[in-house]
Each structure stands twice: as structure tokens, then as C-alpha cells.
Amino acid sequence: MAQLLLPGIDATVILQILILAGSALLLLLIDLAIPDQHKRITALLALAATVAAIVAGPMSSQGVTLAGAIAFGASTLIVNTIILVATAISILYASDSLPKQGIERGEAYTLILLASTGMLILAQGASLITLFMGLELLSIALYILTALAYPRLASEEAGLKYLIIGAFGAGFLVFGIALTFGATGTLLLGEIGSRIPSGGIEQLYFFAGVALMLVGLGYKVSLVPFHMWTPDVYEGAPTAVTAYMSVGSKVAGFIAIIAMTQMLQAAVGTLQPLLMGIAVVTMLVGSIVAISQTSVKRMLAYSSIGHAGFILLGVLTSAAGQGLMAPIFYMVAYTVTNLAAFGVVMAVERADGHDLQVSDLAGLWERSPWLTVIMALALLSLAGVPPTVGFLAKFQILSAVWSAGSMWLAAAAALASAISAFFYVRTLIQLFSGDTTAPIDRPAASTTLALALAGAAIVLLGIMPWAVTSVALAGN
Amino acid sequence: MIATPLIGALVVFVTPKSATTLQRMLAWVVSAINVVLAVIAVSSMQPAIGYQLVDTADWFPAMGMRYAVGLDGINVWMVVLASLLLPLGLWASRQQSGSNQRAYYALMLMLSGALIGAFVATDLLLFYVFFELTLIPTAVLVALYGNADRRSAAIKFFVYPFVGSVFMLMSIAGLVVMTYQQSGVLTFDSVALSGAIRSGAVSFDSAIERILFAGFFLAFAIKTPLWPFHTWMPQTQAATPDHGGVDIAGLLLKVGAFGFLRFAVPLFPNAAAWAAPAIGALAVIGIIYAGIIAFGQHDLKLVLSFATISHLGFVMLGIFSNTVEGINGALVTMINSGLTTGALFLIVGMLARAGGSRDSGAFSGVWLSAPKFGSLALVVVLASIGVPGLNGFIGEFLALQGTWLSPQLGYGFAFFAVIGVILSAAYLLHMYRLVFMGAVPEHGGIAEANRGDLVVLSLLVVAMLVVGLYPAIILDPIQASVAEYVRSVTVAPLP
Asked: Model's pTM, two decimal places?
């Protein structure tokens, strides 16, 4: 009888994943014992687990384990830290806003932890199967989180829409994996590159497989034309979940896309024109459609589509010059900025989950100067105005594009960000003018802390970018 | 010097909302410190080539970004002006009422710090940071304290120049990356970059150079504003508060024209020479167009707004003439525009406060009821027109002389620009006649301005006379730098 050999496991490589997954499962049990009115304890425990995972980051060792299926590479530390910080801030948000809207349930925090585990697996995945597993874990948790406010129709609809579209994307991904496996005979990202078929039907299979995988991931990071779900889901989901989803799943998805482009190595040239076209269209569609939005969350959804185009541009062009610093830095910038923006939306919106309109922000300055400053910083950073982190991020992408010698892409990127400036600034000016409407409750301590963190990060990273780049560069 | 107002702004922001007096005091103290610093800076300037009082520090070495500032003949007066106009703006707005003054003072200080930063930055990216930073406080000032139309004006004010700057950012990225690829030096230092280009260590395809130049051009032309990119300016100025404090601060937005002088032309001399006739034509059209439009305006502030556009037309002509006379003229005109138009905004602010309106039809016979105020205003108006003996004449004359001598422009441009001078005399005197001449209206005229206002105006008038009668005081510190500048950007005529 053949012996089933289990591959050796180096726990230090997957330390962060182990902490997060373990505490998620543990929390599910503990939560049973916590009475409904004390769910805050669950939140605190989840937060503690996340912080523990962040601390474990520098203690992890670089390497590959589980028969090459999972790795801790050069840029893993910084990516994992982004994901975990976003998780921590989202938990802080959720512990304030979910009870306010009367939809707090203990399993919300477990689900957030599980989704983050999925993201980490995605970020560390070195084999196609691991990537798929991470993506599914992440997605399924997010489907449930989106529909968390289920008595509210919008939330339920958003959850269902996300599930159906997400299942589509997963289908593409798994079919692509199958084709790629068929063409190359391996699932390990590191080996596929050297086994790309040079001709015949296998080559066709291979590129069809890669294209299908990119479509699947394109759904996750909402590249045009796979972006249709984004505004509806962002709008319908509870804002704390939107904040989490908008950064977490995008970062994780792009890490997978980066892994794919690295896997393709020189063969990426075949798909380059197509991908660049997608990047440009994504930037322009996101920027142009956002202009006509009246809902803040929908506007931010389209803005996130536009930013996805920028990141893709950075991924495609930065391989030549500065390594992957540009797209990773952009993701850091995007993460802190989006968290701050959604945090303010959450603090301002009404308890019944009524969708916040841009006009509801009028005169926020009179009502809450500090929230206004944070929101203004976030909007400026999204628009790429110095001295915020968004400016440096945008500049690095532009530099990377120029390094790759694509002048027209740089012009297209500049055009897209010029268009997008309009709706960011319109919202910004709205904050400072207009009539005062309903007063705002002082946000809870947890939200204040999270907002202060995100707001400070926007400015500090804009002035001291080396805090991030030295880590990112050290890996290259 | 940059830090003082920025720190001041932060301090003001954290003071309690109700402590208006404290906030005002802080703003005054900060602006006084800055004036002193500026005077020290000017008096320590040596008439030599190159940057002085240089201060540098590595900012982000991995990307070649540095904090680098320095003074030379080209920016020294800009800095003085920036320091002087802050107290002037505070003076104009001292009687502003309203609940939230804290933001006003914080934003004014922030604006002034950002402007000085933009003037002294020698690092391209640092300049860009300050350049953009000037937009935020101004837009928010308009949005918070402006008139009925303030929201759309603020949006326009921000978005329009920002669109230009995004393309400039693209050009900066392109310039730096291509320099890096060709020479292996990753730097944003404007001196190093233009040096590399001049020495031929780095060279661009002329099409690429023109595209890079176009990015800078768009940003600076919108900011200047050069016709036909000027449309944001009258709308913004119509929406700013009546007292004119913000407009005076806004006069400092010479940073656009300054950007041409400091960055766009030295970095891309060939493209600049190539584009000079076209830009000269735009400048001349702007001068005449603004003159004609201003004639039909009733809102006094709009008249001044178009007067500024017309002044900046002369500045642009001077810059692109690429002659020593022209550049000197451009610099002097920039300073004059700050002094003279600043004084005019102050006058309009006083009128608006006393008469409750900015419409030229609402006033009559101010001269009779307020003779001292009227005579000071007349001198300022004459200075703005360019009557010899006052400051306006020197600048416009030099700019025209440079235009005439310029290989790229020539007498045709000068001829049409002179028509603009005539037009500006016409509309400014027309405005003066409507407001100050005629009979005192029946319900009573405007009372004489108070002593403080008169003293401030008199000081400005004295400054105008000094510059007009003895321009060497301005020109001496800048001569060496300008001569060096012209030598560096002069290119062989295109085949």
C-alpha cells in the first residue's frame, strides 16, 4: 500500500497565517460563550490576534514550505503588514459601527479574520492551487460579511450579487488553472516560467489559461470590464465591511497578479499590449464615471476602480526599474487613504444605514473640524496632491511608466488623474461650504483611534516615504 | 523662513475656536518675523552668480529627492514680496467678522509658507510640492469665506490649475527618468538637470523635449494665467471676500510666471525658443483682450483681475524675449503687480467696506468727500497704468524693450503690446473717474479713510515712487543672476 507522504512544514514561514487562522477558529468557539451585549470582547480578541500576527511578521523566516506551495518572499513582509494593518483598522471600525446599526454579531469578527487569512495565503501563495484556495477563503468570508445587514434589502442584494459575480470569477480562475496545468504539467509558479510551451496547441492552452486566470483575478480587483459589481457591492455592504473589502481584496488580488506576471517572465510581453489597454481603460472609466455619482460610497467605488488601473500600470511597467516598489507603495498609499475615507463616511452616516450622499457632507467643517481634516487629507491623497502619500505613490507610478519608455501611457495616466481631480475636489469643497445640517455624534474611541492612525499615516508617509520603501527595497 | 508660517498655521489651528484675538496676534507675529527674515536675506545677498543661503538635506535618497532651497537674484524679490504681502492681506481683512476666524489665519499662514517655499525651492519635486500646496489653502479660503458663488469658484480654482500640474508632474517624471537613463544620475536638482542638458550630457529628441515642455507650459500658463487659460481667475476673484485680503495673498500666485523663468525655460531651452513666438502671441492677445474686457466691467475687483492678466502678459513677453532687458522687465513687472495691484485691492476693499458694494456705479465723488484717500488712490492708479516716474513704467518699458530686441519676438509684438498699455490707461482712468469724480451722492459720500489705512497706503505709494525713480534698488541684486540666466538659455537659432 502506497504511503501517503506529507510534505514537511516549516512553521516559521507561515507563522502569520497560522496565528490568524488558529485564532479565527478559536474565536468561533469562544464567541459562543460571550453574551450578545458583550460582543465587544470578541472584537478585542480579534484585534489582539491581528496585532499578534503583525508582531509575528519580522519573526517569520524567508523560505518556501509545504512542498513549494507557500512562500515568504522578499516583499511578503510589507504586503502582509498592509493586509494586517487594514484588518486591525477595520475591526476597530466594525466594533463601533456594527452595534450602532444594530447588526453586530460575533461571527463578523471571525469572518474578518478568516478573510484576512485568505489574503495572507494569497499573498504568500507560490502555487496555483494555493492562490485559488486563498482567493476562495477570502471571497466566501466577504460574501457573508457583505450581507451582514441582511434585513436591509440593499445589503442582501449586494451580498447575492457579489456571490454570483464572484463565483463567475472563481470559475474563470479554476478553468485557467486547469488549462495552465495541462500545458505545463506543474502548478508551482516558480517552475511554470521555464516550462512555457514554445508552440503548438499547448502554447494556445497556456495563454488561454493565463488569460482566464487574469480574468478571474480581474474580477477581484475590479478591472474594467469586470468591474460592474463594485459600486453596488460597496454601496450595499455595511461601511465598515466596505472599507475592509475595498483595500484587502484589492491588495490581495494584485499580489496574485504580480505573482502571475513574475511567473510569465519574458512571456508577459505577449499579453502586455492587452493588459496595458485594460489598465488605461480602467483608469479612464473609473475617473469619468465617478464624476456623475451622488453617493459617496459609489464615488469611492469608482475611484477605487480608477486606482486599480494605476496599480496595474505600475505592475506592468515597474519590473524594469525599481523592482516592485512603485505598485507596492501605491497599494500602501491606497490602503491607508481608503481606510481613512471610508472611516469618515462611517462616522458621518446615519445609524439606519441610509446611503450617504455627497451633499450630506456639506458644511462638515462647521460640525466636526477633525473629521473634515481627515476626509480632506484622504481626498487630497486620492487625487494625488502633495504632501500626502497619494502624491508620492502616483509619482512613482509615473516614473515607472516613463522608465519603461511608454510616454503615451504616462500621458494617459496624467489625463485620468486630471479628470479624477474634479470629483475629489468637488467633494472637498463641499466639506467647507454649504449649510449645516444634522449634527454628528462624536465617534467612539475605537473609530477615533483608527481614523487618527489612518490620517497620520497619510501625512507621515507622504513626508517620510522611506518608512515603507526601505522595507520594500530591502527585499529586492 | 518657510517653516515659520507653516508652524504658525499649525499653532493657530490648535488654539481654541473663540480666541480670535490670540489667533490674530499670532498671525501678526509670524508675518513680522518673516518680514524681518526677508530683509536680512536681501541685505546679505552678494551680487554674484549662483544660489546663496543654500540649505539642503536628503529627503528620500532612494528616489533622488532632496530638500534643497536657495536664493538668487531671480527669486530674492519674490520672497520679499511674499513676506510683505502677508501682513498687507492681514491688514485688509482685520475687520472681518464671522464665527470661525481660526481657519482664516491658519490658512493664510499656510498659503504664505507654501509660496515662499515654491519660490526658494531649487529641487524640482520640492517645488512641485509647494506649488500644489498653494492651491489647497486658497481654495478652502474661498470656499469658507467667499460670496454666493464660492463653491463653484473654489472648485474651479483648484481643478483648473491642478489639471495643468498633473501634466507637469508627468513631465517631471519623464525628465528625471530619461536623465537617469542617459547619465546614471538620479536627481531632481534643477541646476544639475539644466546643467546636464546644456552640456549635452543628456539630450532629448526634439519631439520629446517639446512634449516635456508642454507639460510644464500647461501648468504654468494656467497658473500665470496666460490667455486663453485665464478663465478661472476672474471667477475666483469675484467670489473672494470683499475686503480683498485673499486677493492680495493671491497676487503672489506669480509662481506661475516664476516657474517659467526658473524651470520651464532653463530645462528646455530649445523647445522654449521654438515656442516663444506662439507664447508671445498669446501674451499679446491676453494684454489686449484683458484691456477690452476690463473696460466693460462694473465690478471693481473684476477690473483689477483683468489688469493683473494684462500685467502678466508683459511678464510673459519679457520672459520669452530671452534678453537681459526683457527678463529684468518681467521681474520688475512681477514685483510691481504685487505692489500696485495689492494697493488697488486694498483700496477696493476699503471702498467696499465703506460703501457696501463693489460696483463702480455705486460710487461717485469720493474725491470730494475723502480727498486724501482719493489722491493716494490716484497715484496708485497712475502707477498701474505705467506713468513714468512710478514703478509700473520701468517694468513695462524694460519688458517692451526686451521684446523689441529679442531674436524670437521682435517689434511686431512690442507694437501690439503698446496698444495694451493704452487700453489699460483707458479702463483704469475710466474706473477712477466713475468712482472718485463727479458729485457727491445725495445720501452722503464716503467718509475719509481712517488714519491706519492712509498710513499703509502712503507707505505703498512711497515704495512705488522709490522703485520708479531709482530702479537700481531693485535691479542691482538681480543683475548678475539675470545675465547668467540669459547666457545659459540662449540657444543657437534653429536651422
From this structure: 0.86
